[in-house]
Amino acid sequence: MQLRALGRSGLQVSPLCFGGNVFGWTVDEATSFALLDAWVDAGFNFIDTADVYSRWVPGHAGGESESVIGKWLQRSGKRAQVVIATKVGKDMGDGKVGLRPEYIRQAVDASLQRLQTDYIDLYQSHDDDQSVPLSETLEAFADLIKAGKVRAIGASNYSAPRLAEALETSQHLGLPRYESLQPLYNLYDRAVFEAELRPLCLAQGVGVINFYALAAGFLTGKYRTEADAAKSARGPKTVGLYLNPRGLRILAELDEIAERYEATPGQIAIAWQIAQPGITAPIASATSLAQLQDLVAAARLQLDADAIEALNQASAQ
Fold first, then answer.
1. Contact 141/162 with Cβ under 8 angstroms?
2. Do the Cβ atoms of 294 and 286 come closer than 8 Å?
3. What stretches in the chain show pLDDT beneath 70?
4. In sequence order, what are the residues at sequence separation of 6 or more whose Cβ sits closer than 8 angstroms to the Cβ of residue 134?
5. Which pLDDT value is given to residue 145?
6. Cα(278)–Cα(194) distance, integer angstroms
7. Within 10 A of 93 (CB to CB), how many other CB atoms are there?
8. Which residues are catalytically annotated?
9. Rounded Cα distance, 26 and 287, in Å
10. What residue spans define the domains of the chain?
């Protein structure tokens, strides 16, 4: 597996990241352990989660995903083989939200306890918190790095102006900087990242680990008619967002290229992202070993220039 540098952090990560939102939610503990073992055995090392996963499920309090990963780390002994990314800032209830320094200090210790580890490789601001000065948030992260609790920091869901301001603040004050950005990006959702965020990340050497790599399942070809919305819990939303003439045009091109490469539409969609300038590692999830093998195959696909350009044209705004 050819690893990639994540920004200037010194971290080396696989070209695809496993999205851990499914752990403790749509995947039980035993299946989660099997998926994580298979991921590492296939040569991948990057796993992304968040403290808030999966607080949206009735009866859940948040931290379920981190807890599953922590149990796996203890059972497997593979902590040194993986790069663990988690996040802070989403609403955990009881006033636990945002990027205030005192809350960050509290939240990181809770994440470390759930993950059963003494350090987090990549600790990310899950959302921009404009109520707190960037300098205060970054100073809090600096303290965590100094204490050995965190190796590098990243940002998720930041606009280009705010990411630029954060990078400038780090440079001006001599503080650790956001080494990665986690934006929405896939074959359908291209406009904001390509126009505003990618030029900044390329210029500043910031790694990009984009989420919704498969557009909530749409790019697998699973949803092609209104009736397909019933195929999953997120089906109605996915169909509502993506099932339109442009979305169908993208699926048609994915079908054609998938046939040529003897692959699946989803594999082609991910391979296209991995080949894009500025992208370090798209984030994608699997809920079965069969789905995981699809991801493994996608990361090993190398599309030729004609295939990439055909997809560029089919997905143009």
1. no
2. yes
3. none
4. 165, 166, 169
5. 98
6. 10
7. 10
8. 53
9. 7
10. 4-182
